[in-house]
Amino acid sequence: xxxxxxxxxxxxxxxxxxxxxxxxxxxxxxxxxxxxxxxxxxxxxxxxxxxxxxxxxxxxxxxxxxxxxxxxxxxxxxxxxxxxxxxxxxxxxxxxxxxxxxxxxxxxxxxxxxxxxxxxxxxxxxxxxxxxxxxxxxxxxxxx
Length: 144
Known about the structure:
Elements: H1 9-28, H2 31-35, E1 38-45, E2 51-53, H3 54-67, E3 74-86, E4 89-99, E5 112-123, E6 126-135
Parallel strand pairs: 1-6
Antiparallel strand pairs: 1-2, 3-4, 4-5, 5-6
């Protein structure tokens, strides 16, 4: 089994820039722009377990979420790692924070902190999201 390719500083910067662009689109609540970051067959499972496959479903989910509890939200991310899985495939891990989230009754929710693992695939000069797995950890039962 051969080792995964090392990431070049140019590729690392391109991936970080792409994630930053995604965060900026998230913070404008533009579902069409958000879905454009995904491959045609990309998918996301949101922290509540909702699966959306393909840009059309992803756009629909983003539109619903950003018209509801995420309407006034703001996202920030902190990169944790990038690993190349092949010459045109990378996996990233980021910590994220969401502020301005509201529950279904309209009540403000405390800052949401979580983690997202994203698989990206290069298409020409652009990195697109093939799979996105944001999650919000729950406390262990019994406080462990």
